[in-house]
Specification:
Helix content: 25-40%
Strand order of the largest sheet: 1-2-5-14-15-16
Distance between the termini: 44 Å
Strand content: 15-25%
CATH superfamily of the largest domain: Glycosidases
Number of strands: 16
Number of helices: 12
Structural class: alpha/beta
Number of domains: 2
Largest sheet: 6 strands, parallel
């Protein structure tokens, strides 16, 4: 591939904004879209050209970071909802600021209680018959998706009567009325229709999921996760239907002119990062995109990834190294040896 074609592949297409200086705002319930809007003049005064926002989709209630998404169809209500975001974006654009949004394609939260994640709740209730069955790993496993949340073995949990059958109106599913659920302390799990009258042990074995002792997760977990975090379940965005569904709201905001570009979280966790980024570029007509690709040593960003570059960890490391006096390395090594016994 020629240098010219590589450069063309890595730049946004004509008509799309290219940020020069981004300023990141960490959104959270105490600092939502309206608070961010109030800070815009200050950011302009600092010389920022673009606003870079942490994830804006609906996250686990109370989330202080937004990387634990539970609903891709909604802009976070705790941050101010879609109207609040659009007000922020319009105010930013009025001041000449672009809007870059962090996207988390790799995973969703496994929240407590689980019903906050409607897609996962549906899969745990209906199994392969769920409209979200192709979203997650493990749905076709004979034992169902592993839920390693128990404090001891299932036999002990049952003997201690810690797992109980209950009935409730599930938030987000109010139209279904009161339904049977399984409760284990703060955890709530759905019950497959037609199994609620079974003895408790048999009922548990009849679900599209398997409750298990938390210590078996490393050996028996049957879904991909974010590193070793059991509460962040991988999403199959390599399935085009899942990709479209999980990005629909974001694409609407790109095409309406509210979002100018994306920062992609953890692309190395995807089954097909190249394919994902190509779909993303096509769906946004070549918008500015950077990825949190961590480059090791002499590793280069793949030339056929249609993005503007990485998020800059490699550059930040080099810039940081310029502020460190290498002559101090011997003294620091001696301190390390004294503390750890290793050199």
């Amino acid at each position: 591939m020629s240098r010219a074609s590589i450069a063309a592949n890595h730049l946004p297409r004509e008509g799309h904004r290219t940020p020069v200086t981004t300023y990141r705002l960490q959104l959270q319930p105490d600092f939502g879209f309206d608070a961010a809007r109030a800070a815009l003049d200050y950011l302009v005064g600092l010389g920022a050209t673009d606003l870079y926002l942490s994830p804006i989709l609906q996250a686990t209630p109370g989330s202080t970071h937004g990387y634990d998404v539970v609903d891709h169809s909604q802009i976070s209500t705790e941050l101010g909802g879609r109207e609040g975001f659009e007000r922020l974006a319009e105010a930013a654009h009025d001041r000449g600021l672009g809007v870059i949004v962090d996207v988390v394609p790799n995973h969703m939260a496994v929240p407590t209680p689980l019903y906050h994640n409607r897609a996962l709740w549906s899969v745990l209730r209906h199994g392969t018959e769920s409209p979200y069955a192709n979203w997650f790993d493990g749905t076709e496993s004979p034992d169902g998706i592993l839920m390693p949340v128990l404090g001891s073995r299932i036999g002990t949990v049952l003997a201690n009567e810690e797992l109980v059958l209950d009935h409730m109106v599930v938030p987000g599913f109010e139209d279904e009325g009161e339904v049977p659920v399984l409760r284990y302390f703060d955890h709530v799990f759905p019950v497959k229709s037609g199994t609620e009258s079974l003895p408790l042990a048999e009922l548990g074995d009849s679900q599209p999921y398997r409750l298990a002792y938390w210590k078996v997760a490393d050996e028996e977990l049957n879904y991909r996760r974010f590193f070793d975090v059991d509460t962040l379940v991988a999403v199959r965005v390599d399935d085009r239907e899942v990709f479209d569904a999980t990005h629909a709201v974001l694409f609407e905001l790109v095409h309406s002119g509210h979002i100018d570009g994306f920062r992609i979280d953890h692309p190395d966790g995807l089954a097909d990062p190249r394919g994902y980024l190509r779909w993303l570029s096509e769906a946004t007509d070549g918008a500015w995109i950077v990825a949190e690709k961590i480059l090791e040593g002499a590793e280069q960003l793949p030339a056929d990834w249609p993005i503007a570059g990485t998020t800059g960890y490699d550059s930040a490391w080099r810039i940081g190294a310029m502020h460190v006096d290498p002559s101090g390395s011997m003294e620091l090594s001696e301190v390390q040896h004294l503390v750890t016994g290793r050199r």
